[in-house]
Fold each of these.
Amino acid sequence: MWVLEMLTSITHKGGRASIGSFINITERKAMEERLRQSEERYHTIIEEMEEWYFETDLADNILFYNDLFLNGLGHSHKELTGMNFQHFIKQEDTDTVYKIFHQIYETGESIRNVPYDFVRPDGNTTFSEFSIFPDRDREGKILGFRGVGHDITERKRSEERIQYLATHDTLTDLPNRLMFSQLLNHAIQAAQRYKRQLAVIFLDLDRFKIINDTLGHEAGDQLLQAVAMRLKQKLRAVDVVARLGGDEFVILIEEVNDLEQVATVARNVLSTVIKPVTIMGQECRVTASLGISICPEDGLDEQSLMKNADIAMYFAKEEGKNNYQFYSENIKAKSIERLSIEANLRQALERKEFSLHYQAKLDFKTGAITGVEPLLRWQSPALGSVTPLQFIPVAEETGLIVPIGRWVLRTACTQNVAWQRQGLPPVCMAVNLSIRQLTDTTLIEDIEAALEDSGMAPNLLELEITESMVMHNPARMIKVLSKIKDMGVRLAIDDFGTGYSSLAQIKHFPVDTLKVDRSFILNVPGNSEDKAITEAIIAMGKTLSLTVVAEGVETQEQQDFLEEHACDQMQGFYFSKPIVPEQFADLLRTHVPKKQR
Ligand code: C2E
Ligand code: MG
Ligand code: MG
C-alpha cells in the first residue's frame, strides 16, 4: 500500500507532539505508473517507428516531430521548431496544403495519403506521403494537426525511371512514339486554342538498310545515335524530335508562322544528316527523305497528321530521296493509287491478269522484222488496265517483279517457239529485265529453265537492261552479265542516253545492242541538239560494233533520218504498236521486206 503521510508538530499540554494523517494513494500511484508507461510507450512508438511524425498548431507551425521527420527535411532541430509548414513546401503547392488543413478543420475528419513534396535546404526534393489527423482537446475542439507519413522518394524515382523508359527510346534517348503522341496531342490542342499552325516532319533515312547489312547492326546503331544527336543539336530546344523505330524519326514544330519557316527547318535537317560520319573506322554518308504535314490544313488529329506526313515522306522517296515534300491532295491521290496497285498486284499473277503484247523491230538494211519486244500488260478487274509505268516501279519495290519477270521470260520464249512451229521466220525476242531480277540469285536458273522448257535457241533471246542498272555495282554486274553471255544469250542497253553512263563505260560490259532512248528520237530531225546526240550515239555505237536500235519512231521523217545515219534497227508506233500474239503472227506472215518488194 502506498500512503501519503502528513505530520504536523503541535504543542500539547506544554509538551511537543505530532498529529499525523495517512492517505491511501495506492490507486493514484498505479495511475501515475500507467501514465509513465504510456508516455514511454508513446515515446518509443514515435521515435522508433519507421514513419515520420509531426504536430502543428492551427496556424501550421511545427510544434513537435520525430527524428525521422527532422532528418527527412534536412533542417536542424533549432530551425525546425516553430517553423511554418509552408516553409518547406514548394511555392506552387502551398495552396493545396492550406486547403487540406482547412478541410480537416472544417470536417473534423482525417485525410489519408496526401502527397507532399518537401524542398530541402540543399535544394533537393524529398517526396513523401502523409495522413493528417485533427488534434483535439478534451472538449473535442481542434487545436492543431498531426501527420504520420513516410518518404516515397525512392519509389517516386523508380516510377520516374519506369516512366522514362516507357516514353524514351533506349538507343538514342529521344522520346519514343508513345511520348511523341502525347506531346503532339497537346500541341494540337494548343494550336487549335490559339489558332496557330504546327508542322509534323517525318524523316526516314535513305540508305540505312545497306549500312546495316554491310557494316553490321552495331554500326547501324551508332549511325542512328549520331543522327539523333545531330537532329537534337540542329533543332531549337522547343522543337521535339522523337524516334519512331528503325530508321524513322519524327519532328514536331510548334508555332509555325509560314511554310517557308518549315521548309528551312527541313533543309537544315537534310544538310545536317548528309554530313559524313565515321563509324567503326569507315566514313559513311546517309541521306534522309522528309515528309511534312501541317495542322490544321492537312489534319486536325494525330492520326491524320502522322499518316499524311508519312505519305509525303514516301513521295519524297519516289522523287529520288534526299529531299522534302509537303503533303498535298495530289500526293495523296498518287499514294492511294500506289496502295491499290500494290494490293491488287499481289494476286495478279496467280489470277492470270497479265498478258504480253509484242512490238516489232525492223531492220533498216533488209527491211525485215528481225526482232520483237514483249511488253507486259495488266488488266486488273478492280483497277482496269494499268500501264507498266504505273505498276512496274511498285512491282520492283515490293520484289514482285521477280516472279512476274520469270513469267514474262517463260511466256515470251514459249510464244517465240510457237510462232516458229507455225512456220514463221525466227525473230529475236528482246525481254526487259529489272534491277531486282538482275540481283536475284535465281536469274541464271530462270533463264536456263525458260530456254530449256520452251526449246528456244539461246541466241534468239536478248535481255534488255538499263544503264543505271549496270552502273549500280559494275563489278558485280559484269560477273552476272558475263554468265548470261556465256549461255549464248544477247544483251541490250535499253533507254540509252537517259542515265549517266558514257559509251566509254558501256564498253566494259559484254553488251551487243544499244537502244537509243525515245526522248531523243521524238525531236529528230527538228531539234538540232537531239539530232546531234542521236547521230553521236549511232556513230559511237558502231565503233564499238554494237547493234544500234532507235526506240519510239513515230514518223516517216524520223525513220528517214535514222536510216540516213546508218542506224541498224528501229522500233516504234510508225511501223507497229505493241500488239497481241495473233496479230503479231499475222504481221510476221504478211510483212514483205523491202528488198523483196
Ligand atoms: P521500254 O522497254 O523502253 O519499252 C518501250 C516502251 O515504249 C513501251 O511502253 C512501248 O509501248 C513504248 N513505245 C514503243 N514505240 C513507241 C512510240 O513510237 N511512241 C511512243 N510514245 N511510245 C512507244 P510500255 O509498254 O508502256 O512499257 C514501258 C516500260 O515498262 C518499258 O520501257 C519497260 O521499261 C517496262 N516494261 C514493260 N514490260 C516489261 C517487262 O516485262 N519487264 C520489265 N522489267 N519491264 C517492262
Ligand atoms: Mg525495253
Ligand atoms: Mg526503252
Amino acid sequence: MSKLLPLGLAAGAAAYFLKGLRVDPATAARRAANAVKLSVDVSDKYSNGAALTPPMGWSSWNLFRNKINENLIYETAKALKDSGLADCGYRYVNIDDCWQSSMRDENGELQSDLVTFPSGIKNLAERVNELGLKLGIYSSNGTLTCEDLPASLGNEAVDAKTFAKWGIEYFKYDFCHNVPIPMRAPCIDAITISRSGSQDEKVYASDLAFLSGSAKIVDDPKLPSGRYIDGLSGNAGYAEFVDIEAPESGEYILTLCIRKKSNSNKYAEILVNGKDVYSTTVPATKAPSSEGRHQVRINLQAGKNTIRIYNPIGSRQDSAAKQYTKMGEELKKATAEYAKANGTPEKPIVYSICEWGLNFPWNWGSHAGNLWRTTPDIKPFWASVLMIYEVNVNLYKHASPGAWNDPDMLEVGNGNLSFEENKSHFTLWCMMAAPLILGNDIRKYVRADGTPDSDEPTYRILSNKDVIAVDQDPLGMQCRRIKSNGVRDILVKPLENNEVAVCFFNKGSSPAEMSHSLKDIACRTFVTLPIVDEYEATELWDKTTEVFRSHIKASVPAHGVKIFRVRAK
Ligand code: GLA
C-alpha cells in the first residue's frame, strides 16, 4: 500500500483504508485523470457573478458539529467583525448541518429548529447583514442531510426559493442520502399524443421510430403490439419519432406506453423539436399487467414535431452532475425572481458543491456551481491535511475565477496541529486558491474589552493579509507543484503584475535547506515573471525582503513552509 503513496504518508493513507474507503485520495486523484467521459452537457460556466476570488468566511461544522444555535452563529459573526477578521476578508458566516427542524412547515418549506433557532433564519440573516456580513446555509442533495434532517433532493425549487427569501448568500450542498438518477430507461411499446382535455389519442407504434445506438426492437407476445423498444438505458441509444402532427401549438399529453419490467426505477428524457427537454421517472414495478401508461405534459408546435426519447445518464458521475446542476439553476432562478418581485438588488448565492470528490466534480463543477469539494472530510491532524493537499494540488487546471477546487474548510486552531503545521495548512490552502472557511472558535480572538487579541498565535496566522492576498489574487490561478521528491515540494502560483508566489514546503520531520532556480520559474509558460538578472522576494510570514540572483533559497522548518512574493527587480 505505501508504495502508492508519497513518502511519509503511509500512516495517513492507512487511516483512509481503516475508515473503509477503498482507495486513498492520492490514488483516487490519479484515477480521476482517466475518469469516464461525461455524457451530460457541462460546457458553459455557472456564472452567477459570485466568488470571483475564493470565498472567505467561517463555518460551524469543524468545531461545533451538531451543537449549534442562533446565539452561537450571531456571536461568531460579531466576533468576526470585532476581531478584525471580517476586514481581512472573512465575510460568510455559514451554518452547516443541524440548523433544520425535522419537520418542514405547513407549506412544505424547510424551517429552522424550533428550539435552537427560534427567531428563524431570515431574522438571523438580517442581523448578520447589519454587521456587514453574509449568512450561509446547508442542505444535502439527498432525501436527508448527513445528520438525517430534511434535505433538498426533489425539493430543489421550493428550497432555493426559501433560501432566496431568507437572504442567504452561500449555500453548501452535501451528498448524504443521495439517490442517483436511474441509468435504466423504460421499454417503450408505443407513444400516444392527445390534446390536453381530450379523450382522443393518436398512437405512434414502436416500429415507426428511428432507432440509434443500442436502441432495438424486441418481440414480446405479452404486448398487444407484439413488440417494444429496448436499449435506451445508460446513454447508449435513442428512439426518435418524427412527423408527430399537432393541429395547433400548445400543451399536449405524451403517453409513454411502456412494457412494465424489472424491479428498479427508470428514467427518460424527452427532447421535443431539438430544444425543449422534459424528464420523467418511471417507478419500479411488480404490477400484474405487462403494459403501463406513463404521462408527461409537453408543448408541441403546429404542424410536424420530432420527439426523441433517451436516458442521458451513463454513470454515477452523470447523475451527480445533473442533480447538482439542477440545484444551481434553481438558486439562480430564485434569487433573480426574489429581487424582481421585491424591487431589491439580486443577492447571488455562492454555491458550494460537497460530494467529497466521489464523482470527479472538477470535470463538471464549474458548470454546476462556484466550488466543489475534492476530498473526504478534513480532520484536525497533520496526516489529514497532507492527504487532502496531495489530492487537491494536482487539480490546478480546473480552478478559475468563480470556480474553485475546495480542499475543505480550515482546521487552523483545532485539534493538535502545531503552530508550524497550522501555518503550513493555511499557506498551502492560499497557494491552492482554496476557499478560506475558518472552522474554529472565533470568539476567543476578542478580548473582554471588545478589541482583537492579536497575540493569539492562530489569530496571527489567519489575519496575515499578505498570505491572504496570494489566495485572493485576481488572476484566480491555483499553484502548480513544479518539483517534488515526495518530502520537499516547490509550488509556484502566478500573481497579478507579473509576480509569482513561490512556496517551499517541507513535509519531513527535520528542517531542510531548499532552493530553486529563478530562471527555471520565469521560463515556465504558465507564469509571466520576466527573465532578469535579479529578483526581489518578500517572505510573507517573517516579512523580510531579499534580493536573489540565480536561486531563491530558504531554511524550512519540519512540517513547515516559506512563502515568497517574487518580482523582477
Ligand atoms: C459531511 C460534509 C461535512 C459536513 C457534514 C455535516 O460530512 O462533508 O463538511 O457538512 O457532512 O453533517
